[in-house]
């Protein structure tokens, strides 16, 4: 009878470990897919692939369509850069307003938190800055 319990526990352990590993792996795959989905360069590729698949573009149409999409991606990158700049300005303004309401000790602690936060940068979004012409 003890042997059956041991086998049952081992099998349950294997099932549990498999379940946890599958959940972890699935979460990582979903996270990677989500990051790719939000990257303008990946969006560019997926749109071209979909257009090519559904519309059967000629080589000339593919070239022209790619140029149009490239321009849109550059525009989206610019919007992201502007958004980062506006977000950072709002956060800095909020920190400044909060700082005026604090005691000197609290203000010193807030400055430490502010340094930990760091600056919002384009690196956070994994987007290359616009190239100036």
| SSE order | HHHH
Structural class: mainly alpha
Q: End-to-end span in angstroms? A: 79 Å
Please report the total strand number as a whole number. 0
Mean pLDDT: 84
User: How many helix segments?
Assistant: 4
Q: Please tell me how large the radius of gyration is.
A: 25 Å
Multimeric state: single chain
Shape: flat
Low-confidence stretches: none
Residues in β-strands, percent: under 5%
Give a quick account of the main beta sheet: strands, pairing sense, barrel closure. none
Describe the structure.
The protein is an all-alpha fold. It is built from four helices and no strands. It is flat, with a radius of gyration of 25 Å. The model has no long low-confidence stretch (mean pLDDT 84).
Keywords:
mainly alpha; 133 residues; flat; single chain
List the helices and strands and how they pair.
Elements: H1 2-38, H2 40-55, H3 59-100, H4 104-117
Helix pairs in contact: 2-3
